[in-house]
Amino acid sequence: MRPNGRAQQLVFVLALVLMVDCCEPDPLLGRVIDGAFRLDSVLGIGSMGTVYQAEQLALRRAVALKVLHPTLLSEPTVRERFHREARLTARLSHPGIVRVLTTGEIAPQNPSEPSTIYLVTELVDGVTLRSELQSHGSLAPAHALDLLGWVGDAIGEAHERGVVHRDLKPENLMLTPQAVDGCPIRVLDFGLARALDNSETALTRRGALIGTARYLSPEGVRAENVTPASDVYSLGVVLFECLFGRGVFSAESTLELLLHHAETEPQIPTRFPSGEPVPEGLAKLLLAALAKEPTARPQDARAFGQAIRRLGLQPGAMLDPAAGGEPTTNVSATLPLGTSAWGQRL
Predict the structure, then answer these.
(1) Alpha-carbon distance 177 to 152, whole Å?
(2) Where would a tag sit more exposed on the chain, N or C end, judged by fewer CB atoms within 10 A?
(3) Interior CA angle at 340 toward 300 and 255, to 5°?
């Protein structure tokens, strides 16, 4: 049925409004924040805020500056948690973790508007793992194992210091053209999800959830205590997507997807997109990472990363099945299960 004249007029007016809104200049561009950082360009806009390329004037170097949406700061304790998490993250020194430089607050130009907060990190050149997957669909198994092995090492250092990322996904993993101390991938946005968690169920934070539901752990779906094992689950989902070019579960709605993560046992394909069989050891590793119970997963991301590396480097684990080889990796011997990152038995 074709729309009537009145409906066509409304659609046209709405389109004009959207065009004007999209074309409005960013009021922060060109502004100097705290006398230290000039915002030069927009790098990206997400559910949590806007990321700018900025110049740190005193050192004349380019940095990334993320300004959070004021709507995320409605709870009084969020600002304090945000700065505390940033200080914890700044202590991490793994080459796979993007360094946090400082945080601060931006006073509004209009006194009636709320202030917001920002986070400054080193500026990383590269493309996100999401972009890589969109371009290629999936990664070669050896490449995927190498990348996730590095990510596991990086997240593992955070876990050893009591820091949980909580929002691991391809968008937060950056592939760099030049490796840093051998590490070809960097982890972004440490501590943001934890700082912005206002103890409400994840379902109430719709804007932030849409981008992360695909990687949310079962306990995260149930709004239970999040631990290093929750990050391991997310890493398992990321590895699955890298290997097979799709998510662990398919669903027609976010709610259905969350229910799958909470209740449905994952099915590991028997073949890669190339048609080659999936080694038994790798399938067992994925099932361990994607276990519904946190205590059934590797104890933390470093343990998971070490198990990934063993699969990638151990000859028996990735033998070419066409040549008659059989995977020999004993996953149960490589995964320390049931122990928290703080040394307490779960």
Answers:
(1) 20
(2) N
(3) 65
